[in-house]
């Protein structure tokens, strides 16, 4: 299996790009944090980033790792955020990383870092302001040091997908 991370700060267009890759027939994994937020809101569970930050982050990290461990072999998989995004979020809040975050180095072929969009918007799951989103973007970039990072500029979603696919090289034939 070849895992690629699509990451960047909140509102960078990761989910849009991941959906376009899915529409092209690639295996993708949606953002886990958004799923956890929606599920915990529905259950009226306090493990939310604006109520119980550590409980929320622990749940996201556990689910992300579990999903990544169960991915199909011999396929290209695009992840909307990777396991190490959790390091950036913990650092933003002044928290020390969980031991498992420090000890696990997932096998990512490349990390595609989407540059922030100019038209940043919040929603019921994304409550960070533009300044915080930019700070997170930079922390995420640091979290993936040691990996091959490919910066994807702020262009149309379709052009971003084209740039990602062009940067797969020989891996494109493993799909």
Short description:
With 175 residues, this protein is α/β, with parallel strands linked by helices. It is built from seven helices and five strands; from the N terminus they run βαβααβααβαβα.
In terms of topology, how is this protein built?
Elements lengths: L1 E6 L6 H10 L3 E3 L2 H12 L9 H17 L6 E5 L4 H8 L6 H5 L4 E7 L15 H14 L5 E4 L4 H10 L9
Parallel strand pairs: 1-3, 1-4, 2-3, 4-5
Which strand order do you get reading across the main beta sheet? 2-3-1-4-5
Low-pLDDT residue spans: none
Instruction: List the secondary-structure elements in sequence, H or E.
Output: EHEHHEHHEHEH
Shape: globular
Description:
The structure is a single chain. With 175 residues, this protein is an alpha/beta fold. The protein has a single domain (2-174), classed as 3-Layer(aba) Sandwich (Rossmann fold), CATH 3.40.50.300. It is built from 7 helices and 5 strands. It has a 5-stranded parallel sheet, with helices on both faces. Helix 6 (130-143) links the parallel strand 4 (108-114) and strand 5. The model has no long low-confidence stretch (mean pLDDT 87).
């Amino acid at each position: 299996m070849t895992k690629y991370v699509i990451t960047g700060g909140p509102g960078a267009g990761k989910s849009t790009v991941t959906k376009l890759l899915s529409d092209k027939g690639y295996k993708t994994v949606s953002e886990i944090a958004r799923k956890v937020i929606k599920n915990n809101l529905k259950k009226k569970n306090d493990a939310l980033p604006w109520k119980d930050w550590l409980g929320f982050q622990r749940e996201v990290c556990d689910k992300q790792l579990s999903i990544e461990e169960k991915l199909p072999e011999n396929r290209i998989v695009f992840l909307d955020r990777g396991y190490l995004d959790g390091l950036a979020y913990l650092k933003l809040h002044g928290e020390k990383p969980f031991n498992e975050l420090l000890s696990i180095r997932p096998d990512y072929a490349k990390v595609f870092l989407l540059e922030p969009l100019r038209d940043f918007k919040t929603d019921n799951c994304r409550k960070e302001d533009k300044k915080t989103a930019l700070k997170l973007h930079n922390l995420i970039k640091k979290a993936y040091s040691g990996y091959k990072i490919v910066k994807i500029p702020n262009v149309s979603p379709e052009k971003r997908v084209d740039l990602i696919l062009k940067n797969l090289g020989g891996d494109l034939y493993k799909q």
